[in-house]
Amino acid sequence: MRNKSIKSLLYEAGIYSGGPRIVTIGGGTGLSVLLRGLKRFTSNLTAIVTVADDGGGSGLLRENMGMLPPGDIRNCVVALANTEPIIERLMQYRFTEGDLKGQSFGNLFIAALNDICGSFDQAIKEMSNVLAVTGKVLPVTLEDMVLFAELEDGTIIKGESQIPIKQQTTNQRIKRIFIKPSNCCALPEALEEIQNADAIILGPGSLFTSIIPNLLVKDISKAISKSTAMKIYVSNIMTQQGETIGYSLVDHIDAINQHAEELYIDYTVVNNGPIPDYLIEKYRMENASPVKIDYNIIRDMNIKVIEGDFVSIEKDYLRHNYNHLSEVIFELINEEKLSKDKKRIIDYYYVNGKLKKQKAMNKE
């Protein structure tokens, strides 16, 4: 029997809390933004990240070095890092000249660790140690997963990077997505984290290329459905060109249900904050619009809608305000999960203290 750390023994005895166990599932910009807020409230945080990317610098490394694409993983590791700002800038730095033009230093760092450590998951763990990461970042699988989409007219598109491009040229909705090999095995540690989670969060992020691909990996959806964790879907603020133009909130959830049998979402977090007219017009030029909330249908699906003003504007793009979003999520977890379990009283007061501190900081 392995010797357990003092921290582990105290946690099991109910004397110590690093916060509730949260698992996030996704990829791309949306997940990394969310993680920046969640890490303020718990150290028991796991990001399970898609490895279907085949474009940009990640795609080149995947093709030339035969490794899994590091881009989404890198963004999540950087989001959870507790290090100097210059190190974050270094990890996100993209070369502007020569053969490395367009490639990020962080991707190359992971590629080097992949060679040194002999495995992609171990490389991520070593990078996480170097950057003093809060929680864990895990690839959903270690297999060479390729993403495909079938459009409503039967057209098949190969490759994550090609799906939004070719979907726009046909103007056909995505009927389904699938992966090859179809029996990709999940990382065992990812399944373990899902099993032990207090809350599992899907999104925000690209529905068909960041969130759903994880659910197609063998046993991931089954593990989520069997888990006693709260299942929370964080809706995008806007529809997305090349993926979800014209989609309502119900359309997003229906797509998840179609690809992941018996994955029942308990709560959906949606934006009700105002969006400036100039941004509405900017997104309208891409045929995108605010995601419509079908309240009556959602409630008939026994999904509770949690609303808030989550609008943040960065360089004329809409993003979630990760501080407010994470506060709302942890208030929900405290109220619906931790407060109802006497054995979790330490966790409840731990989160409650964090929430009070964050709200006090917001008033300053």
In short:
The chain is an alpha/beta fold and 364 residues long. About 2% of the residues have low confidence. Helix content is 44%, strand content 16%.
CATH homologous superfamily annotation of the largest domain: CofD-like domains
Write the CATH architecture name of the largest domain.
3-Layer(aba) Sandwich
* N to C succession of SSEs: HEHEHHHHHEEEHEHEHHEHEHHEEEHH
Average pLDDT metric:
93
CATH topology of the largest domain: Rossmann fold
Judged by helices, strands and strand pairing, the structural class is alpha/beta
Termini separation (Å)?
A: 50 Å
- Total number of helical segments? 16
The percent of residues in helical segments reads 40-55%
Q: Which strand order do you get reading across the main beta sheet? A: 3-2-1-7-8-9-10
Given as residue ranges, the uncertain stretches (5+ residues, pLDDT < 50) are 10-15
Radius of gyration: 20 Å
Polypeptide structure, described:
By secondary structure, the chain is of the alpha/beta class. It folds into two domains: 18-141 and 189-363, CofD-like domains (Rossmann fold, 3-Layer(aba) Sandwich); 146-180, no CATH class. The protein is 44% helix and 16% strand. The protein contains 16 helices and twelve strands. The protein has helices spanning 6-12, 28-38, 56-65, 71-80, 85-92, 105-117, 120-130, 163-170, 188-195, 207-215, 220-226, 249-259, 277-284, 295-300, 322-336, 345-363, and strands at residues 22-26, 45-49, 136-139, 146-151, 156-158, 174-180, 199-202, 230-234, 267-271, 304-308, 311-314, 317-320. The protein is globular, with a radius of gyration of 20 Å. Mean pLDDT is 93; it is low at 10-15.
